[in-house]
Design a protein that fits this description.
This protein is mostly helical and 139 residues long. The chain has helices at 25-44, 50-57, 61-69, 99-106, 110-114, 133-137, and strands at residues 4-6, 13-15, 73-75, 125-127. The strands form two sheets. It has a two-stranded antiparallel ribbon with strand order 1-2. A two-stranded parallel ribbon has the order 3-4. A hairpin with a 6-residue loop joins strand 1 and strand 2 (13-15). Bound molecules: zinc ion (2 copies).
Amino acid sequence: MIDVVTCEICGRLYNNPSGFFRVCPTCYENDENEFQKIKDYLNVHPCAKIFDVVADLNISIKQIKRYLRESRLEILEKDNHFLLCESCGKSIRTGRYCDECYKNRHKNIRAVYSGSSNIKHSNAIRFRTDGNSKRASSI
Ligand SMILES: [Zn+2]
Ligand SMILES: [Zn+2]
């Protein structure tokens, strides 16, 4: 049986034998390249702000947000008003939920996750927000 899914980036249908990534192979490759660009940029400018990265690398806020949701990027400020918990709406630095909501959602399946809990956040690269959160929250 072939599992056909819609790519979250370009909207094309493609075969997804692994069932893990929701982007097609073409977009995945572009995505990796762009992520690498951000990484290189933050190596050179360790205190770069999100909007600097967006402007200098011509990357969309939406894309940055996706990297943040995937815990590949992290915001330095705790109270950033840029990335919000999907459950309670509190500012978070990375991922989808604040610690509290994360714990609540995962307490029943903790055993499944305990093996990989050390990996969380370890590879995230960091950002500052510039306080211009109006533009970001409207997206
Ligand atoms: Zn695609
Ligand atoms: Zn929350």
